[in-house]
Amino acid sequence: MSNNRRDFLKKGALIGLAGIAGKLVGEEKLKTLDQIASLNEGEATLPPLPYAYNALEPFIDAQTMEIHHSKHHKAYVDKLNAALISFKGDKNLVSLFAQISKLDVSIRNNGGGHYNHSLFWNLMQPNKEGKKPMAEGKIAEAITKDFSSFENFQKEFAEKATKIFGSGWCWLIEQEGKLKITTTPNQDNPLMDIASEKGKPILALDVWEHAYYLKYQNKRADYINNWWNVVNWNKVNELYTTK
Ligand code: MN3
Predict the structure, then answer these.
(1) 212 with 64: CB under 8 angstroms?
(2) Which residues contact 220 (CB under 8 A, 6 or more apart)?
(3) How far is the CA of 101 from the centre of ligand 1 (A)?
(4) Residue ranges per structural domain of the chain
(5) Is pTM beyond 0.85 here?
(6) What pLDDT was estimated at residue 16?
(7) Given a cut of 70, is residue 162 above it in pLDDT?
(8) Residues 6+ apart with CB under 8 A from 221
(9) Distance CA 187, CA 21 (A)
């Protein structure tokens, strides 16, 4: 047996085992940004949540999660696929976003909707302790460097997210080695050529009313304040440190 063949088999076995272990604990490995962007044979699919619908309680309620994932996100997936039927170029979301100003608005809205939500689900995790998690590792160092403290960063992020007029997203992005907080309207994101601030998204917060209205009604600031409890900082760090 050649070395290549042996390595291939070994890798396959490891991936298989990781898959089984992942299923046992009910957790999917974080989709990398590339995995989220690359549509499977040109078709988007609704990714499973990496936790149960009720797993983020009491901070985000099960009904909101279920409707948000199985109805809203599903609709973006279906409409994106419909919009891509007649599109003949490279069906990778990042390359679509880079030329989004020239494409059909349906690809912009639904491609953004699919990408943003896929990222959002993976950046949250259950928190049974009720203590707000802190960033750790390289991302924590970078936040302290660029925002002077973790508390300042959270304050600035929450303020910008609260002030978004209408529907949109608040982001932490890496832009030429520096961290920045930015916001986008609707389902736009910082990978799009039309974004006022472009960069690699590493943290995303959905502030559309459908993300919080059932539990928080008009109190967006309370939703944001509670959302910090379920931010998965290990995943943020993973996105930040993965080139
Ligand atoms: Mn949403």
Answers:
(1) yes
(2) 161, 162, 207, 212
(3) 22
(4) 1-29, 137-241
(5) yes
(6) 39
(7) yes
(8) 158, 162
(9) 34
Residue range 209-233: mean pLDDT, rounded: 98
The set of residues, in sequence order, having a beta carbon less than 8 Å from that of 94 and lying 6+ positions away, is: 33, 34, 37, 191
- Ligand 1 centroid from CA 206, angstroms: 6
Residue whose C-alpha is closest to residue 239's, from 193, 172, 191, 187: 172
Q: What span, in angstroms and rounded, lies between the C-alpha atoms of 200 and 62?
A: 30
Average pLDDT over residues 167-175: 98
Rounded Cα distance, 18 and 23, in Å: 9
Q: What distance in angstroms lies between residue 49's CA and the mean position of ligand 1's atoms?
A: 14
Q: How far is the CA of 2 from the centre of ligand 1 (A)?
A: 49
Report how far ligand 1's centroid is from the alpha carbon of 127 (Å): 21
Instruction: Fold for 137-241, please state it.
Output: minor pseudopilin epsh fold (3.55.40)
Token couple for 234: 């290990």
State pLDDT tens for residues 68-79: 999 999 999 999
Give the pLDDT confidence score for residue 31 in this predicted structure: 64
Q: Which stretches within 123-149 are classed as H helix?
A: 137-147
